[in-house]
Structures are given as structure tokens and as C-alpha cells.
Write a structure and sequence with these properties.
heterodimer, A: 2 domains, 87% helix, globular, B: 6-stranded mixed β-sheet
């Protein structure tokens, strides 16, 4: 009897734990929003977060986008050749980068770069009692640590995505004109004519959502870190996994919301 | 000044505090002793409102401590406290003087940067550190120096109440003696009420006016330091003498 019930019990326990985690993250998100709206505001910390999240992510975003755009152009050219549609390279690169690959890859790079460092930093602060010290110094850790990072991600990640879109299209452009014999002016004209406002809006909205998820997960797992070096390691790992999965899930939902009608 | 009445706190099935009764008068120095995991730190965190007790009452300066209050009231409440953490808990992202002046650069105690720095340097001097330390980062300091900076930060805004969480843990005996002396001097000259957690008996004798021993979530013995050695409580005696034989269970 015992062996029959225990898998069920395990399933139940896991499900309850999962729902509890979703609830805690949701509460953390709401608490962040409410702290965002009420003073005091820490502008210096916001500026620092904008620089570390936005500015220092520029190289990795640029590199990711240019290689992806280039590879995309090659793939579409060779794939398109199977039904004599090589000419669609500019259009598909544009739509693929702007709607999908730009935001998702930038989001995942931010999850790798920002979520991990935010989680590790805050978890270390928690483990070394720096978070408690903040509280005793009359400073709310949510306002001082979480709000600046989440706000900075909401502001800068859409800009990074916009940059990633442009660089990705440039990557496709370079490969198409240098290797595949496309006419440069024609390539750009095709790209420009093909893109619609909704493509770009969806790209930026995705960027903001993915940025928010990345910073929020880093802060949440950091603040709830376990003890010791192992606690910090586990918090960092969980934050990146959670951010990446949530970004991909949110990407599906947003794509559905924007483009199924 | 500070009073705890029948305070209980459990974490899940772990019942840490089982009815703590404690009180400290204004300007007195209470030292709480007890083994690891007996609820000393939890007691301090309850007083600060970092942890909400399950039952019981905590009164600071005549007013009950509750965790649910407006942000402003909470800031004013916490402004009365200074705390020295076990590992110093300095913010490693900022230089020493900004750590010390943290409270003077934000919130309602905010003042011009130059003035905040001046106060920080003065407080550093009070704990025996020269102005050259002010621009270093915490990671560049030794453990003893970090403790001193932590002490300077705790007293930076002239609090009425100061908490010391294991102030001598991890220090060599001479540095521990220096820190004990500093704590004693500073508490006396500021007229502050102090609560110290420790299991270092040298520290107890140097700092305490009153002593309370916590065991198994309750206050086992409390009284003035002068009466401690004569007390007959077997738990207290075992702790003072550091004997492996006695009522307190030890793991071997």
C-alpha cells in the first residue's frame, strides 16, 4: 500500500510546492510594484543598475545578434533555394530577428549575464547579513536593491533588444551582400518596406517583459537564498533556470497575443 | 527601556523561543549568553521587528513593537537602534566611510556629503582607525578592522540602543579584548542601552551590567554580573566553566 501511495504523495507535494512558489513569486512581483510607486527613491542606485545591466551588456548583445543574423541569412538562402525562394532572405531575416530571435536571444543573454550576477550579489549580501544590516540602517532592501534593478532592466532591455534587432539585420545584410550576391540597396529597401510597426512594437514589449523577468528572478532568488556558499550557488542556478524558462514561456504567450489575429 | 514578555517563536516544527522574559533599563548593558541555536539571535531580531514573534509582547521605550507599521514610523523606530553584526556585514560595494555614514546619507537623517564624511571619519577615529582607512574597501581590511568599522557604523547616528551580535567571534584574544574595551567605553560615554549576544565569557565580564542566560528557548538565569559567579544554577555554572559535564547536552 505504502509503495502505491508514495508516488502520488510525492506528486501532490511537488505540485503544492510549485503552486506555493508561483504564489511567492507573484507576491514578490506585486511588492516590487508597490515599492516602485512609493518613496524613497534611490536614483544613484538606479543609475548604477542602468550602467551595469544596460551599458555593460552591449558587447554580448551585439555579438549574439550579429552572428545570429548572419547564420539566419545563410539558412534562409539555402532553405529557400529548395523551392526557388532565395530572394526572400531580407524579409525573413528582418521578421525573424525583430519578432523572435532578437528579443529571445537578448532576453536569454540578459538572463545569463544579469540574472546570475544579481542573484549571486544579493544572495551573498543575504548570507553575510548585509540585508539585515540594511534594514537596521532604516533602508528597505526591496526599495534599495530590487526596485533599481527591476526598473533598470525594464528601461534598458527594450533598448538592447532594439539594438540587437538592428545589429542582427546588419549581420544578415553583411552575409547576404558579401557572400550571397545580394544588392545592398535592394536588401535594405526590402527590409524596410517589409517590416510593420507591430513587429517593432512587439519586439520592444517582449524586451521589457524579458528584462523585468530577468531582474525580478535574480532579486527573488537572491533574497530567498539559503545559507552558505551552497545557498548562494543554488540561488544563482535556480534564478537563471527560472528566468530562462519564464522568458521562453512569456515569449510564446506574447507572440500568441500579438500575432494570432 | 526594553522589555520582552513571554515571547514565543517557532520556525515550522522548530520551536526556538518558548516564552522569553527579559528586561533592560535605560543606559544598562545586558549580555545574553547561551549555546549555539538557543534563540539568542532570534531574540534580537524580534526586538528589531525583523522577525514577528508568534506570541508575547515586546516593548521598546514604552511602546509595543509591531512589524506592521507605516514606512515612516518604522524608519523612526529603527533610527533609535545601532547594530554590530557578527561578520560586521559591511557593504562591500562601497568604501569604508560610506559604510559608516550610510544612515547619514539617506532618509530623514540625510546631510551634505562633506559633513557625512566628516562624521564618519570622526567615528572611525573613535574606534581607533585613522582617516587613511576611510577610502579603503571592506575587503581590504582585516577581520578586526572590519569589526571596528562595523562598530563605527553602529554608532554613527548616535543611537539610543545598540545591539552587538557576537562582537569577539573570530578575533584573536588581544583584538577581542580591544573590541570589548571599546564597546564598554562607547556604551558608557553615549549613555546607550546595550544588548550583547556572546558565548565568550571574557566578553561577558568586560561588557555586562546584567547577564541573562538563554537555554532551550527560555531565560534560564538572569541577574547582575556581580551575582553570576555565585549563582547555583547548574546550567549557568556549566556554561561559565565551559565544562563538558553537566545538564546541558553535548554532542561528542
Amino acid at each position: 500500500m505504502e509503495t502505491l501511495i508514495s508516488p502520488l504523495a510525492l506528486l501532490g507535494r511537488r505540485s503544492l510546492a510549485a503552486f506555493a512558489a508561483i504564489g511567492r513569486v507573484a507576491l514578490f512581483f506585486l511588492s516590487t510594484l508597490s515599492h516602485m510607486a512609493r518613496p524613497p527613491f534611490y536614483f544613484k542606485e538606479l543609475l548604477q543598475a542602468i550602467i551595469s545591466i544596460g551599458y555593460f551588456s552591449l558587447p554580448v548583445v551585439g555579438l549574439t545578434a550579429i552572428f545570429t543574423g548572419g547564420a539566419l541569412a545563410l539558412q534562409i538562402y539555402s532553405g529557400g533555394a529548395r523551392f526557388n525562394a532565395e530572394a526572400v532572405v531580407p524579409q525573413i531575416v528582418a521578421i525573424g530577428m525583430v519578432r523572435e530571435l532578437g528579443p529571445v536571444l537578448v532576453g536569454l543573454m540578459i538572463a545569463a549575464r544579469v540574472t546570475s550576477s544579481v542573484a549571486a550579489e544579493i544572495a551573498t549580501m543575504k548570507v553575510t547579513e548585509q540585508i539585515d544590516a540594511l534594514v537596521t540602517l532604516s533602508t528597505d532592501p526591496m526599495k534599495y536593491l530590487t526596485v533599481p534593478r527591476v526598473l533598470a532592466a525594464l528601461i534598458t532591455v527594450p533598448l538592447l533588444v532594439a539594438l540587437g534587432d538592428v545589429v542582427g539585420i546588419m549581420g544578415g545584410f553583411l552575409v547576404a551582400t558579401e557572400r550571397l550576391g545580394f544588392n545592398p540597396a535592394g536588401y535594405l529597401q526590402n527590409t524596410w518596406d517589409f517590416l510593420e510597426a507591430l513587429d517593432i512594437i512587439s519586439s520592444l514589449v517582449k524586451g521589457a517583459v524579458f528584462g523585468g523577468i530577468s531582474a525580478l528572478m535574480g532579486c527573488y532568488y537572491g533574497m530567498n537564498s539559503g545559507r552558505g556558499a551552497q545557498g548562494v550557488g543554488r540561488a544563482t542556478k535556480s534564478s537563471v533556470v527560472a528566468a530562462a524558462v519564464l522568458i521562453l514561456a512569456a515569449n510564446f504567450l506574447l507572440t500568441q497575443a500579438f500575432f494570432t489575429i | 527601556m526594553i522589555e520582552l514578555r513571554n515571547v514565543h517563536k517557532a520556525f515550522g516544527s522548530k520551536h526556538v523561543l518558548r516564552g522569553i522574559d527579559l528586561s533592560v533599563d535605560q543606559g544598562r548593558s545586558l549580555v545574553i549568553i547561551g549555546g549555539s541555536g538557543t534563540g539568542k539571535s532570534v531574540t534580537l531580531k524580534c526586538i528589531l521587528g525583523l522577525i514577528r514573534p508568534d506570541a508575547g509582547e515586546i516593548i521598546v521605550g514604552g511602546e509595543p513593537v509591531t512589524t506592521a507599521r507605516s514606512a515612516k514610523a518604522r524608519e523612526a523606530f529603527l533610527a533609535r537602534f545601532g547594530m554590530l553584526f557578527q561578520g560586521a556585514a559591511l557593504f562591500d560595494s562601497m568604501p569604508v566611510w560610506q559604510n559608516v555614514a550610510f544612515r547619514l546619507m539617506r532618509g530623514h537623517l540625510k546631510r551634505p556629503k562633506a559633513e557625512a564624511r566628516e562624521i564618519a571619519v570622526a567615528k572611525l577615529q573613535r574606534v581607533g582607525l585613522g582617516p587613511d582607512v576611510a577610502d579603503l574597501y571592506p575587503a581590504e581590511l582585516s577581520g578586526g578592522m572590519q569589526k571596528r568599522v562595523g562598530l563605527a557604523r553602529a554608532i554613527a547616528a548616535d543611537p539610543e540602543i545598540i545591539f552587538f551580535d557576537e562582537p569577539t567571534t573570530g578575533l584573536d584574544p588581544i583584538m577581542a579584548g580591544v573590541i570589548n574595551e571599546l564597546i564598554r567605553e562607547i556604551v558608557t560615554e553615549m549613555g546607550a542601552t546595550a544588548i550583547t549576544i556572546t558565548h565568550d565569557m571574557t566578553s561577558v565580564r568586560a561588557i555586562a551590567d546584567e547577564v541573562a542566560m538563554i537555554h532551550a528557548g527560555k531565560v534560564r538565569w538572569s541577574g547582575p554580573i556581580a551575582k553570576m559567579d555565585a549563582a547555583t544554577d547548574p546550567y549557568l555554572q556549566q556554561f561559565i566553566t565551559g565544562s563538558a559535564e553537566g545538564p546541558i547536552e553535548t554532542l561528542r
